[in-house]
Amino acid sequence: MRKAIVNCRLFDGEQEHVGLAVIVEDGQIVDIVDEKVAESLADEAVDCDGLQLVPGFIDLQVNGGGGVLFNDAPTVDTLRTIVAAHRPLGTTACLPTLITDDPETMRAAIDAVREAIGQGVPGVIGIHLEGPHLNPERRGVHDASQMRGLDGQALELLSSLEIGRTIVTLAPERVIGESIRQLTERGVRVFAGHSAATYDEVRAAIDCGLIGFTHLFNAMSPFESRSPGMVGTALSDPASYAGLICDASSDELRQAFSMANPKEEEWTDKSRGPGARDEPVALARTTLTPSPIPR
Q: What gap in Å lies between CA 32 and CA 37, rounded to an integer?
């Protein structure tokens, strides 16, 4: 069945359009047409009553939602709960994210994502493996005892999804450049994070295929005098992507955007929320207590 979404203010990501309609068939956008001819091309019209119609968010770092965490239960049912919790808030697709864990949990998570995509679970488009090849000095809430080097077996595991998208966050100073190159050749998008890497180490990783940075400013070497660190490298590289967790004040976010050369993205880095109560939560063997967002 074809539907025409009419009487909307259509935002295409750069500008707003009036007088256009979106034609949807079997859950896919198939055309954008003049509103005057839209109803003749569809079986049903959906009147937006002048509301703004915008593309859905694609969240590249989602640890959980609906009261569940991917690390706790890496199953298809968990994935269904996570994406269902985020959908009412505008996220139409995401990369469920597994933080540093043992190989068995990683394998189960990858298998669950592969199965979810195969079943057509709406919103699951791949996986983000945030660790375990990180620097314990910048571990954050990650379990340092599970951090390890990237050998041949690990490379096979990281690139084993073979469907959808895979992002791997690693610390460049803990991984040889050839491993980054091999991951890239297998279609994995390599990001840097939880790292104490120097400017030169990050630049070398970019030359090997690293394309982005996970939660810019958080758990990475800072920008200092005569030592740009990972933050300085990210802000100076126009070809890189950089994720920002929007839990800071609006002024801080504006400053980040005004300084940034890379392609900025906003990520939620959600744990159990949305849909979870404000109470302590165990995330990969670490207990977290919610605190107010600074304003």
A: 11
Catalytic residue among 34, 111, 269, 278: 269
> Nearest to residue 17, comparing CAs of 45, 55, 52?
52
State the DSSP string of 213-277.
ESSTTTTB---BTTB-HHHHHHHH-TT-EEEEE--S-HHHHHHHHHH--SEEEEE--BSS-SS--
| Contact criterion met (CB below 8 Å) for 63 and 70 | yes
| Residue pair 243/288 in contact by the 8 Å Cβ criterion | no
Q: What is the pLDDT of residues 2-46, one digit of tens each?
A: 999 999 999 988 899 999 999 999 988 999 999 999 989 999 999
Pick the CATH number of 2-53 from 3.10.560.10, 2.30.40.10, 3.40.630.30, 1.10.3470.10: 2.30.40.10
What percent of the chain clears pLDDT 90, i.e. is strictly above it?
Answer: 77
Q: Is 204 helix (H, G, I), strand (E, B) or coil?
A: helix
In the residue annotation, 101 being an active-site residue is answered as no
